[in-house]
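Example A, followed by Example B.
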Amino acid sequence: DGKQNGEIKLKTLFFCNLRPDKDGAFERVLAQVGLTHRQHGDQLVLVLAGEPSASVAVQFHEAGIKWCVIPEWTESNVGGAPVMNGTKVGTFSDKPTPGPSKEGIEEVEKYDAHLEPTPNLAKEGINHKKFKPNEIPSLEGHAKRGWVSTRGGPTHIENKVRPWGFVFPALKLLRQERPDVAVVHFGNELPSLALSLLAPLIGVRGVKWVWQQDQQMALPGRLTRLVSRIRLLALRFNRFVAVYEGGRAAMTARGIPDSQIEVVHNGVMDPEPEKNLAAVRQWLGEGGGSFNIDVQDRDGKSELSCESCLSILNPAAEQSLNLMSVGSMIPRKRQGVLVEVFAELVQELKSPALRLILIGDGPERAALEQQVQALGLQNQVVFLGKRNDVSRLLCGADIFIHAAAAEGCAYALSEAMAAGVPLVVTDAGAAREQVENGVNGYVVPVTDRAMFRERLKELIQNETLRQRMGEASRARWAKGFRVEDQAQAYWEIYKSRSQ
């Protein structure tokens, strides 16, 4: 199993200010990083801001990950009342343990009912639903308050990040675990620096520190270059990871030596488009059939039946052409631009077969729905809300569109590539690293709405081009955007830091 005398060769303590309560792309990355550690006889220890959902907990368990929660890191409120009562710091979960009460289990089952097993688990013949309710790992703290979720689910949550709240609990964990490498992902610079400086004072020495910058970074102004917080991290951190070349450039402009920076693109699992294409497209309305996916309304209080979706998506006599976009409905994602461009193309092309499918949720959704109503597009635009099955749904897309003003390395683009879909995207973040312009899609300037429209129109009208670019997308994903490659790259960075 790769171990020497039964002992762990490398222990990585991974601090991540995240509540992994959604079976999303990043949660699968964490599981894959854990699995890669286990395959090499090493161990990944996750330190989270909230407990994982049932399905995510099973992924972590099967990947050999040990995890615990620092409740002080994020204060979550439902109706103004604090609800984060996560696992006590120092109490780790790494195997199935007694779960929550009957009421809590019912909420978990209602929310997790449509989750599918992850590829790694599926390959091993493991389905998280085989666990009995009282065997679901690490659900302590959900029993009395039911199931709450910050990223999809039955209850709206407002999160308040408390960046300094993790420092002293993290020091305790460092002393307890004695890791070779400490990684900070989704963290805050100054508290992380304080943690790294305090560690030697409590006898924790020899730890190598890695900072992972998953989000977008703008090039700094003159003042920021001199007083950047991330620049201060270089006093203690040995390695920095960006998810796109623009992130590397932004770090070097802030004074981080280029030799200390690695770029690791965000990778995704294989959605097996050849397996899922027919079923997804049937569910999207081309055969009148059904697909085993639940659809929640924007408040998560009720479910739309497949028949309701079909009534929206199924054209009367023509085969639909599905344009899909995935992303949080926040201003910088600019879904409103997509709706405007779509409206113009519907009017110009006179095609009732065109469909715009928006996946995601957020504060801009109500305005987007009003925009669709005002344009009279309610029969051609559908909102699917937050989903746990985005990678599978993308298998039913004809074209993926994304008009963000700023990005890091968007998982949604990688997922579209994995599904074998051509893309039309704005030049934000890693877009030009994910999409080779004219090969697997088009990359247009953020402000050039007319070019975006024309590139999209070109793909709508040319089925042969769509097919060729879709095949190129799938090939590009296979060469550099697989989740297995991302996890291996992270492990190699950690390993090199420990030597």
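Example B, a separate protein, is given below in the same form.
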Amino acid sequence: MTTVPFDRLIAGTAALGKLNSERAIRHMLDRIHAAGIRSFDTAPLYAAGCMERILGNHFKNTTDITFHTKFGLTPPIDSSSLAHLYLPSKLIQAGARALGRRTTQIDESKLISYAKDRILRSIEQLGRPIDLWLAHEVPLSLLNHHGFNDLLESFIKSGLVRKFGVGGYRQQYALPEHTPIWQLIDVLQVESLPGSPPPHPSQWNGEVFLHGIFSAYTKTKQRPSAIQAIAEALTQQKASKVILGFSCQSTLESTVDDIINP
């Protein structure tokens, strides 16, 4: 029987924002934790800007949890004033995404200070240092900017950011191998492509985190069990860890059930 390597699983929290209440989110967080998963992937945009706060509050007395968050698509500028609320309405969720801005829409001269603000805001919401901070589909010019490297190094040295990675990594978004920031990159987060290894630089030996392992099978009209999909991603696709994303509540429930009761 295939066993689940829980230390190599990461719970994606994007779809938790589709649940009807903060109480429902906390219930699923408890179920995921009970299943043995200890790492959570989040972003400032999730749950209309509330997911980081919910995670931080829910696990504030738990020491065996790691949080991965992102810098990329962000919530509306004024969402911080709503951070004490949970906004589950699909209309509000859609509005937050529409009002959210990609870093490509921000004046390039302001990106460094904006990145610093986002790190500090995420630390405040999570209530602890960031275990993995991902630059998610940000302009390549930012990753090549010496000011961004200096900013990142200062946060890593201070211990406020423990690891750095690049999210949404793919061939058409590939960083040149000579780019200095490779020295700071610990993780590449890439989309699952069943049957093939993920793209990564030939001289880079860091970790590869796969996301979209279920949606990838949906495109081929196959639906293996959660354990089968995880095993395939870890072996054939040579992933270090797998991010379990959930497109809807039923998928989330069935996946957790699969893991708890293989």
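On Example B: The beta strands are 9-12, 39-41, 66-71, 132-136, 164-169, 187-191, 207-211, 241-244.
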